[in-house]
Design brief:
single chain, 2 helices, flat
């Protein structure tokens, strides 16, 4: 394909054969899934979001401290970008929490 590079996919070995495939040497289009999807629970997803939000909220303060100390590696524009990212992250987190609370309320209203 690209300068002698050929991908190492053994698609024929991944094909599941069924009774429908007995009518010739035509390979089946059915393939089994080799990769297992990563399943994270709700608690780990939410705690990861909170940790990312905390890191994003601390970034402008740390950059502002570096600017005030006279660090030449950090510009005031970096601080402003970090502040904008933090503001957007707070908006997204607030919306996500609101949606989770709405979903909880709807679940609690279901009559059994």
């Amino acid at each position: 394909m690209f300068n002698g590079f050929y991908p190492r996919y053994d698609l024929e070995a991944r094909i599941q054969h069924t009774k429908l495939d007995s009518w010739g040497n035509i390979p089946s289009a059915r393939m089994s899934r080799v990769e297992q999807p990563a399943e994270a629970d709700f608690k780990s997803v939410m705690s990861g979001l909170v940790e990312n939000l905390n890191t994003t909220m601390d970034a402008p303060d740390n950059l502002l401290k570096d600017v005030m100390m006279g660090s030449e590696n950090v510009d005031i524009h970096d601080v402003m970008v970090a502040m904008s990212k933090a503001e957007i992250s707070v908006n997204v987190a607030t919306t996500a929490v609101g949606k989770v609370i709405q979903a909880y309320d709807k679940i609690m209203q279901i009559q059994i």
